[in-house]
C-alpha cells in the first residue's frame, strides 16, 4: 500500500568540483617544457617561381589534370571566422582565404564556383598536400623554411602578425605577462612554436583548431591564446568581451601551399596573385573581410627566385 512506503531520500547535489570545470576539448594536450629547435635557414622563404609569361598558354601535367577533373580541390578550415568559415545562414563557405581560392579557380577553370573544399586542421595541411588529397591549401599557412622542406608555396599573399588575445579586464598586456599562465595554441602552427620559444615557462595547451581556443578562453580554462591577428580579429567579432593586446610577436607571411614538384601549378597560382594585386581584386577582398584590422596595408609585393 502506498501509505507504507518510505519517503524518497532528499536529493543532494554532488560536490561542485565534479562538474564545474569543463573538460578539455577532444584532442587537446598539455605540452611539456622542452627546448625549441632553432628555425631552419633557407634564405628568403617567400621567394617563389615566376608566373607564366604574358600571352603564354599555361599548361602542364598538374594544370591539365585539374582542368580534366573540372574542379579545384582546396584544403582549408571552416572555423576561422573572417578567413574561412561556414555562413550559418547559407551554409556556404566564405572568408578571405576562400575568396583567394575562388580567384584561382576563376582563372584556371573559368568560374570561381568550380571549387571543392576539404576541411583540414592546421596540423593536417602538409600531409594532405603530400598525399594528393588537395590541389592547394588556402589556410592561413605561413611560409617558413621548415615547411618548404615538405611543400612548395606561392608568393606571399598576406602578411599577418602574431598577437595575444585575452578576456576584457585581464592583467595580461603583453608576451612577458604570459609567464606561468595557461595559453591555448593550435597544433602544427608557427604561433605555437614562437610562444614556446619566447615564454618557455608558460603552460601551453595544444588543441586541434582555433575555435577550441576561443571556447577555452570563454570558459576561463586558459588565460590567453596567441595567434595571427587575422584569426584573433575573427574571434573578437564573435565575442565583444575579447581583447587583442600587446605588439606584434612577429610577422606571418601567408602563402598558398602546393605539393612539391607541381611547378606548373605554382606558376599559375602566382599569375593569379599578380592579377589580383594589379586589378584591385585583392583590395576588395581585404575590405570585405579584414577591415576589422584597420585600413588596407596593400598586397605584399611578390618575390621571385628565377
UniProtKB/TrEMBL annotation:
InterPro entries: Bact_solute-bind_prot3, Solute-binding_3/MltF_N. The keyword rRNA-binding does not apply. Belongs to the bacterial solute-binding protein 3 family. PANTHER family: ABC TRANSPORTER GLUTAMINE-BINDING PROTEIN GLNH, AMINO ACID ABC TRANSPORTER PERMEASE. Gene3D superfamilies: Periplasmic binding protein-like II. It comes from Prescottella soli. SUPFAM superfamilies: Periplasmic binding protein-like II. This is Glutamate ABC transporter substrate-binding protein. Signal peptide: none annotated. Keywords: Signal, Transport. Residues 1-62 are annotated as: Disordered. Residues 71-293 form the Solute-binding protein family 3/N-terminal domain.
Amino acid at each position: 500500500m502506498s501509505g507504507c512506503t518510505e519517503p524518497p531520500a532528499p536529493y543532494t547535489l554532488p560536490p561542485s568540483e565534479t562538474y564545474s570545470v569543463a573538460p578539455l576539448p577532444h584532442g587537446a594536450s598539455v605540452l611539456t617544457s622542452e627546448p625549441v629547435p632553432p628555425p631552419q635557414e633557407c634564405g628568403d622563404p617567400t621567394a617563389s617561381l615566376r608566373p607564366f609569361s604574358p600571352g603564354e598558354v599555361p599548361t602542364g601535367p598538374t594544370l591539365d589534370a585539374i582542368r580534366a577533373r573540372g574542379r579545384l580541390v582546396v584544403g582549408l578550415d571552416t572555423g576561422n571566422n573572417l578567413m574561412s568559415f561556414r555562413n550559418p545562414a547559407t551554409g556556404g563557405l566564405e572568408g578571405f582565404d576562400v575568396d583567394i581560392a575562388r580567384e584561382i579557380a576563376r582563372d584556371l577553370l573559368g568560374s570561381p564556383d568550380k571549387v571543392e573544399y576539404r576541411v583540414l586542421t592546421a596540423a593536417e595541411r602538409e600531409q594532405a598536400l603530400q598525399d594528393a588529397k588537395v590541389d592547394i591549401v588556402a589556410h592561413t599557412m605561413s611560409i617558413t623554411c621548415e615547411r618548404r622542406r615538405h611543400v612548395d608555396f606561392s608568393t606571399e599573399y598576406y602578411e599577418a602578425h602574431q598577437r595575444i588575445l585575452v578576456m576584457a579586464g585581464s592583467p595580461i598586456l603583453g608576451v612577458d605577462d604570459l609567464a606561468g599562465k595557461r595559453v591555448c595554441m593550435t597544433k602544427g602552427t608557427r604561433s605555437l612554436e614562437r610562444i614556446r620559444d619566447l615564454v618557455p615557462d608558460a603552460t601551453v595547451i595544444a588543441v586541434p583548431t582555433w575555435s577550441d581556443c576561443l571556447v577555452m578562453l570563454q570558459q576561463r580554462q586558459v588565460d590567453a591564446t596567441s595567434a595571427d591577428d587575422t584569426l584573433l580579429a575573427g574571434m573578437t567579432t564573435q565575442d565583444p568581451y575579447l581583447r587583442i593586446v600587446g605588439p606584434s610577436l612577429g610577422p606571418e607571411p601567408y602563402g598558398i601551399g602546393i605539393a612539391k614538384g607541381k611547378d606548373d601549378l605554382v606558376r599559375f597560382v602566382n599569375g593569379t596573385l599578380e592579377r589580383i594585386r594589379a586589378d584591385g581584386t585583392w583590395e576588395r577582398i581585404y575590405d570585405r573581410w579584414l577591415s576589422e584590422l584597420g585600413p588596407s596595408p596593400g598586397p605584399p609585393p611578390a618575390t621571385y627566385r628565377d
